Amino acid sequence: MAGIDLSDRSKVLAIIGQGYVGLPLAMAAVDAGWSVIGIEKSASRVEQLNLGSSPVEDISDERLAKAIAANKFVASNDPAGVSHASVVTICVPTPLDDSRNPDLELLKSATKDVAPSLSDRTLLVSESTSYPGTLREVIIPIVNSLKPSTTKSLYFASAPERVNPGDLIWDQKNTPRLVGGIDEESQKRALAFYNSICDSVVATSTPEIAEAAKILENTFRLVNIAMINEFTQLCSAQGINVHEVINAAATKPYGFMPFRPGVGIGGHCIPVDPLYLTWWARKGGQVASLVERSDEIANQMPIYVAERALALAKASTGTPKVLILGVAYKPGVGDVRETPASALREALVARGAEVAWVDPLVPFWEGTQPVSEAWDCDVAIVATNQPGLNLKPIRERGVPILDCTNNYGDLQGVELL
Ligand SMILES: NC(=O)c1ccc[n+]([C@@H]2O[C@H](COP(=O)([O-])OP(=O)(O)OC[C@H]3O[C@@H](n4cnc5c(N)ncnc54)[C@H](O)[C@@H]3O)[C@@H](O)[C@H]2O)c1
Prior knowledge:
Layout: E1 12-16, H1 22-31, E2 35-39, H2 43-50, H3 61-69, E3 73-76, E4 87-90, H4 105-114, E5 122-126, H5 134-146, E6 154-158, E7 177-181, H6 184-197, E8 201-203, H7 207-237, H8 242-249, H9 273-283, H10 289-312, E9 321-325, H11 340-350, E10 354-358, E11 379-382, H12 392-396, E12 401-403, E13 414-416
Parallel strand pairs: 1-2, 1-4, 2-3, 4-5, 5-6, 7-8, 9-10, 9-11, 11-12, 12-13
Antiparallel strand pairs: 6-7
Helix pairs in contact: 4-5, 7-9, 7-10, 9-10, 10-11
Bound molecules: nicotinamide-adenine-dinucleotide (NAD).
């Protein structure tokens, strides 16, 4: 494999998947002295990476180019590259299928791709989010059935990624990392690896504890977001300003954590991971009823927002024109995966609206291009407070604005969700 220093196998890491999780991990490992092979299925992404152009916001082109120039990073679409590595991490997507059940096809196919090339005494870690038991019941059996006959000992661990794209404070290095090895030797090796790239590593007694903890973290978010969104609807119907209520409650120095209402839940984690939990519960003959209800409330929220916005519109024609400001699932990123703006747009269109959008970080969304803030509309909705949004031209025209982000409530003509 040209262009990378593979002289010391004990310091060679292969990462399967070079996205929001895999690429930041690669750069953190390079900083810690590892040589990293970024194995990526998408040929265009491999080419882009090797040209020093980063596809994720958290990694600058300069940082990537520096790693390449130092012969410490190369991207490749050859899964056989794992044979050079002492540590292999899987960082591929774990989405939902059409029935909103866990879809482990990418995880399984990535495992199948690399298993035949794993060298003896390799540590294989799954960082992908999944239900408890995925490492033991899904990944390890695939590896054991496909590994080379010369590969006698392999080590396995689960170390779910907690990265928060766009976060300027918490990153790969300073976010404590959960590590659960399948046995003592696996745990020892996994702890040593993560201690080399993270400031703080937390050992769990089994991989299932680490897997379940990750699901718990994101389910906690879903349930609280759903609760505050439901509470917002109750307050609004009774003429109470929910933000004042939250601010008041937040003065309690213990036992309360403020969550804010919004258009809904988005991204690859909060709308998805809790459904791994509900599926896992049902597989075990139980029902995670609070989580299932939270998912329903979260999915209904964009409809509520659409109706609130349309109630503000003073349409001159029968077709209200609505401008959505910010369509990425959160501020500071161009990621539109699972964005609640999609359901918002659908709900608006279903109610007869003409919808356009603006997002300084998103050039193209679901087959449509952005307009500008000057677009002639009857109401605007701030769905995501994207840096670079300009409300001035909208306010100057006296167009009402529904702010779902709790940022512009002091401005005249702006109503908070
Ligand atoms: N994005 C987040 O904020 C975040 C945070 C924590 C955990 N996670 C979890 O991390 C995992 C990865 O998520 P992500 O956001 O990095 O996904 P992503 O879509 O940004 O990147 C995944 C990459 O893997 C590649 N890929 C898919 N199958 C492959 C294969 N067989 N071989 C090589 N490459 C392959 C894809 O082409 C893609 O580039 C998921 O389980 C996710 O739930 C994500």
